[in-house]
Design a protein that fits this description.
By secondary structure, the protein is α/β, with parallel strands linked by helices. The protein has a domain of 211 residues: NAD(P)-binding Rossmann-like Domain (Rossmann fold), CATH 3.40.50. 43% of the residues lie in helices and 16% in strands. β5, α5 and β6 form a beta-alpha-beta unit. The N and C termini lie far apart (49 Å). The structure holds nicotinamide-adenine-dinucleotide and 2'deoxy-thymidine-5'-diphospho-alpha-D-glucose (DAU). The site of 2'deoxy-thymidine-5'-diphospho-alpha-D-glucose (DAU) has 19 residues, from α6 and β8.
Length: 352
C-alpha cells in the first residue's frame, strides 16, 4: 500500500494499538491517523514506541463529534477508514448499556455519514472497513461453527450494539453504494489488553495472589486468537478484501474457560517459581454472567481460501508471550488498575 491516508478509530485500545503499530511500521508511505477518545480502555502508553514516526498522528476525540470528523476529513482527505472504536466489554454493557448505544451504534453512523459526505459519489480507492465480533451470531451448542451466513442473534447489549452497527454499515453499502467491508473476529488475547477481560484479569490476579473469578462452572467456550494475527488479517482484508463482503476471523482454538484458567495457573506457577498447583488454589467459581453465551467458534475457511490468511501464533507460545508481557510491565498494569478500574472491579465482583 502506498500513499494512502488511513483513519484508524480506537487506535489507543487493545486491538487498535496493535493495528496502528502494524500499519505505521509496514506502510511508511501511508499516513496513519489514530482518532481515539481515550476512555478508560484507551491508553497512549500502548503506542510509545511508534508515537514519533513521521507517518503517524494521534487525535484525541470522539467519533460522535461531527465537527471534529469534518475537520479531520478536510485536513487529511482519508482514503481508508478502519473503524475499531467501541465500548467492548460485555459485563459493562450489562451494567450500563447506554454508552454502548452511543459509541457503537450512533458513533458508527456518524462516521458513515461523514465518509459519505466527503467521498461524494466517487468511491474510487475508498474503503470503510468495520471491525466487528463473532458475538453478533449468538451462542453455539457443543456442535457447529459460525460462518459468514450464520443468522444474527445477538444476546447482550454489547453484541446487540455491534450487530446494529454491522447492519447499518451494510445498509450504507446497499442504499448509497458506500464501499464497505466487515470482519467478525473471535476472542483476541495478547499484550496491552485491558485487565477487565478474562486472560489479563486472571494473570493479574494470580500474580497478586487474589481469587481468580470464573463465572458459573467455567464450561463456556471461547475461540482465542493472538492479537497480532488479527492485525495481519485486518491488513490483508484492507488490501484484498472485496467491498460488500464479510470475513470471519478466528483462531481455530477453542478452550473451556476453566481449562484455560488452569493452563494459565500452570504457566504462572513456573514463571513465579511457585509449587505446582499453588496458583490453581486461587480459582473461585462465582455467580454466572447474565445471559452468558455458551460457546463461540469461528469457521475461518472463507478468508483462508480467498485471501490466504490463517492464524500463525501457537496458543501456548502466545500465552507465554502474554504472561511475560504482563509480568514485565508492572507500571502499565498498576496505572490502568488504579482509579476507575478499581471502582469497577469492586462493584463487578463484590456482588458475585
Ligand atoms: P478496547 O476496549 O481495548 O478499545 C476500544 C478503544 O476505543 C479505546 O481506545 C477507547 O478509548 C476507544 N473509544 C471508545 N469509545 C470511543 C469514542 N466514542 N470515540 C473514539 N474512541 C473511542 O477494545 P478492543 O478489545 O481493542 O476492541 C476493538 C474493536 O474490536 C471493537 O470494535 C470490538 O468490538 C472489536 N472486537 C474485539 C474483540 C476482542 O476480543 N477484544 C474481538 C472481536 C472484535
Ligand atoms: O468473541 C469476541 C468478543 O470477545 C469481543 O467482541 C469482546 O469485545 C471481548 O470482550 C470478548 O468477549 P467475551 O465476553 O468472550 O470476553 P471476556 O474476556 O469478558 O470473557 C471470556 C470468557 O470468560 C466468558 O465466557 C466470560 C468468562 N469470564 C470473564 C471474566 C471477565 C469469567 O469466567 N470470569 C471473568 O472474570
Amino acid at each position: 500500500m502506498k500513499n494512502r491516508k488511513i483513519l484508524i478509530t480506537g487506535g489507543a485500545g487493545f486491538i487498535g494499538s496493535h493495528t496502528v503499530r502494524h500499519f505505521v511500521t509496514n506502510y511508511p508511505g501511508c499516513k496513519i491517523v489514530n482518532l481515539d477518545k481515550l476512555t478508560y480502555a484507551g491508553n497512549l502508553e500502548n503506542l510509545t514506541d511508534i508515537e514519533g514516526e513521521n507517518n503517524y498522528s494521534f487525535i484525541k476525540g470522539d467519533i460522535n463529534d461531527k465537527e471534529l470528523l469534518d475537520q479531520l476529513f478536510k485536513n487529511f482527505r482519508f482514503d481508508v477508514i478502519i473503524h475499531l472504536a467501541a465500548e467492548s466489554h460485555v459485563d459493562r454493557s450489562i451494567s450500563g448499556p447506554d454508552e454502548f448505544v452511543k459509541t457503537n451504534i450512533l458513533g458508527t453512523v456518524s462516521l458513515l455519514n461523514t465518509a459519505l459526505r466527503f467521498w461524494g459519489k466517487n468511491f474510487e480507492g475508498k474503503l470503510f472497513y468495520h471491525i466487528s465480533t463473532d458475538e453478533v451470531y449468538g451462542s453455539l451448542d457443543n456442535e457447529g461453527l459460525f460462518t459468514e451466513s450464520t443468522p444474527y442473534d445477538p444476546r447482550s447489549p454489547y453484541s446487540a450494539s455491534k450487530a446494529s452497527s454491522d447492519h447499518l454499515v451494510r445498509a450504507y453499502r446497499h442504499t448509497y453504494g458506500l464501499p464497505v467491508v466487515i470482519s467478525n473476529c473471535s476472542n483476541n488475547y495478547g499484550p496491552n489488553q485491558f485487565p477487565e477481560k478474562l486472560i489479563p484479569l486472571a494473570i493479574n490476579n494470580i500474580k497478586n495472589n487474589i481469587p481468580v473469578p470464573v463465572y458459573g462452572k467455567g464450561e463456556n467456550v471461547r475461540d482465542w486468537l493472538f492479537v497480532t494475527d488479527h492485525a495481519s488479517a485486518i491488513d490483508l482484508i484492507c488490501r484484498e478484501g472485496k467491498p460488500g463482503e464479510t470475513y470471519n476471523v478466528g483462531g481455530g482454538n477453542e478452550w473451556r474457560n476453566i481449562d484455560l484458567v488452569k493452563l494459565l495457573c500452570r504457566i504462572m506457577d513456573k514463571k513465579l517459581n511457585r509449587t505446582p498447583g499453588e496458583s490453581e488454589k486461587l480459582i473461585s467459581f462465582v455467580k454466572d454472567r447474565a445471559g452468558h453465551d455458551l460457546r463461540y467458534a469461528i469457521d475461518f475457511g472463507k478468508i483462508k481460501k480467498e485471501l490466504g490468511w490463517e492464524p500463525s501464533v501457537d496458543f501456548r507460545k502466545g500465552l507465554e508471550i502474554t504472561v511475560d508481557w504482563y509480568l514485565n510491565n508492572n507500571r502499565w498494569l498498576d496505572r490502568v488498575c488504579s482509579g476507575e478500574y478499581r471502582q469497577y472491579y469492586n462493584q463487578q465482583y463484590s456482588k458475585r
